[in-house]
Write a structure and sequence with these properties.
single chain, mainly alpha, 10 helices, elongated
């Protein structure tokens, strides 16, 4: 061998691998911690669990079933029953898409309550959802059989149009 390799200035391959943390000589615990994406996945799981915890009753499996039942039964005779069951247990839903479905429930109390909730939520939703709410209320103001609902929907639609 030449003097060049006797000098020991160059790092060994083992040292190079340790620096890269790819060596079989590195402890498995250390390798797991450096696995890309593992921390992000765990954070996502923990975040989801915390959100579910803060939802209270609306974070349960039963809530998910009743919520899904509303969406699945839309347009069928079971829709009104599913909506009433959900509202009895949890009150009006918090998301815009479900509230827009409830406007087709044919129950005057539910429709009036839903219009009020959509009016309160209007400032906190996306521009697309704002337009959907305004359009749905405009259609309801023109087509509903009840004069009370038509008037309320027309008034709220005009107010929301002014807020756009």
């Amino acid at each position: 061998m030449s003097k060049e390799y006797d000098n020991d200035e160059r790092p060994s391959w083992r040292d190079i691998d340790k620096k890269r943390e790819r060596s079989s000589h590195v402890s498995p615990d250390r390798q797991e911690k450096t696995k890309p994406g593992a921390d992000r996945w765990d954070r996502g799981r923990y975040k989801k669990a915390l959100e579910k915890l803060f939802l209270g009753d609306k974070g349960t499996i039963e809530h998910g079933k009743l919520y899904g039942k509303i969406h699945k039964s839309y347009g069928s005779p079971a829709f009104l029953r599913a909506v009433q069951e959900y509202i009895e247990k949890y009150g009006l839903p918090d998301d815009t898409s479900t509230l827009l479905l409830l406007l087709d429930s044919k129950n005057q109390e539910i429709i009036v309550g839903t219009i009020g909730k959509l009016q309160r939520l209007f400032g906190d939703v996306s521009p697309r959802e704002k337009e959907d709410i305004r359009r749905k209320l405009s259609i309801l103001a023109l087509t509903d059989k009840s004069n009370d609902i038509r008037e309320k929907a027309a008034d709220v639609a005009e107010e929301l149009k002014a807020r756009l």
